[in-house]
Design goal:
By secondary structure, the protein is mainly α. 81% of the residues lie in helices and 0% in strands.
Amino acid sequence: MADLSGILAIALAFFVVAVSPGPANIAVATIAMRFGRAAGLIFGAGLAAGLSFWGVIAATGMGAMLQGSVYFLSVLKVLGGAYLLYLAFQSARAAAKAGVETGGKTAVDGRWFRRGLILNLSNPKAVLAWMAALSIGAESGGQPTIAAPGFCMILGLVNYTLYTLVFSLPGAMAGYQRFRRAIEGAVAGLFAMAGFGLMRSAFSR
């Protein structure tokens, strides 16, 4: 029972972090609206894979070591910030384009999985979120094992899938086409702020 309570506490803490608006959820929602359901699902699978990697690292105890490494976190923040700035540039470029865009053949391109994977692999908040969730589970009296990260990985995939299904609905995609420039401009601003914030925190004590 203690193990079950620990797993449930971890899952709840992880779920709260996973569903909250952040770069990953904003990115998968934007891709689903712009390119459709197929692209969003593939991108979400990449995000989930990246999340799973950090989950395994955290569950094996390496997460605590990495969390305590100032050098590692600084490098990860710089890489994550740089990638967010790249996404900001892509969104800004999309906002600058005239006309209406459609997903076309690019919707099922394998690049979406790689982009999702890179986004969460370069996200230092993923490491901290896993460590926080596992610590909550331990405090609740459970002994977190690989079952807890495995359950959370499924929750992460479900979260990205739901974002994709909602934002790939015809109404959402039509709304995106109508307000494409405003949406992409706002997304570019959010990514830029998050990217600069990560890079600034990498060099602050």
